[in-house]
Amino acid sequence: MVNPTQGVIAVIVAGGLATRMASATAAVPKVLLAIAGKSVLEHQLQQFRAAGITRVIVLAGHLAGAIELAAARASDRSFHVEVRTEAQAMGSGGCLRQLHDLNGPAVVVFGDVMFDVDLGALLETHTRQRATITAVVHPNTHPHDSDLVDVDADHRVTALHPKPHPPGSRLRNLVTAGLFVIEPAFIEQIPSVLEAPKLDLVQDLITAALARGQRVQAWQTSAYLHDMGTPQRYAQAQAAWAQGIPARRRRPRATVFVDRDGTLNRHVGYLRRPEQLELLPGVAQAIARLNQLDVQVVVVTNQPVLARGELDEAGLAQIHAELETQLGRAGAYVDRIYHCPHHPDAGFEGERPELKCACACRKPRTGMIDAATSDLHVDRAASVLIGDTERDLDAALNAGLRPVLVSANAHALAVARGVQWFPDLARACLALFPNPQPNPQPNPS
Description:
By secondary structure, the chain is of the alpha/beta class. The chain has helices spanning 40-50, 64-74, 91-94, 119-128, 184-188, 201-212, 231-242, 245-248, 283-292, 304-307, 313-329, 367-375, 390-399, 411-417, 425-432, and strands spanning 9-14, 34-35, 38-39, 55-60, 80-85, 106-110, 113-116, 133-138, 148-151, 157-161, 175-182, 216-220, 224-227, 255-258, 296-302, 336-340, 384-387, 402-406, 420-422. The chain has 15 helices and 19 strands. The longest helix is centred in the C-terminal third of the chain and has 17 residues, at 313-329. The mean pLDDT is 93.
């Protein structure tokens, strides 16, 4: 099997002035700030070395001399760290002009991002999808001040929404996380210094790549990625490392699978428009608490409105964007949303015949849960499925999850079947995960 990191170089973008860090970086560049006894640079180099990458280029500017000394200490016969210093501030995109000798893919990371990611899997996916650039993405607790992307079913980026977002925006909580894979063709398209002295990698260069029709892919992960570019987020990164969260993310984790209608949002029959979506009281706060406890949250929802022809995939995407927007306002996020578009019964006017079938994903079957287990690190023995119907209960049992029912309508069913019941999601989560000492925000970048 070919090593996906063979011949790949790594690039650390570390030329910024660190204005968000105030006095913390007056004498020390961000990339040399310490976390768990090592500088951010050392942590990043450790990730590259472990992945089998042997050459790293640091694009420096502010306090470049200190970075050069650190790079020299990190280099040896089998691992070379080179520093290239920009003559003027060129931004996170403009500085990539210094990679004029790039002859293969490069992993690019911002110097204020702490990460613990399977770089081999990232590179394998990038190569298989023949992307010009792949952006690592994830949900976070503050999508309102993050660069967000839209993706299609093949994970191709279809739109970029730079921060700040217009009031009333309805957007998916998929954030560019400061880690990318780029090809030489991406570098070749960067305008000259005379045309554009300073460029942002995301807002300028990825936007331009999309406009040119180049293949921009998103690689969504639940691995540890953390922008520590502000004093608050720097403190969160220190706490996360002290509590072992990055290492924990490499192992199967407790996951809350949750139904949508009647559990997260008010049941209105067949929900067909985003304006109909109303989160139930306490839901956003409950999910924010699970985020703080580093418990994954995965939505699994039957959506027969697609098979009935009453809603299309674009409309469902808008509904889920509304769900993620409402959660994001409260500093909460779900890790993934899976839906079943099928329905077994045919014979309705306007239905979509291709979706009228007995599938493996419609609850109480386990297809959505199986997909999540494949995509994420899920410890089924420690996980639950919270819903409000017998389909949810049986799906949990079929998948080896602990079933939990919520809502007044489900009380009699819970008693009859002998399963746990709570009036709502908020009280269920508080009882199921009572740890009084939350971990720091796991995905604040």
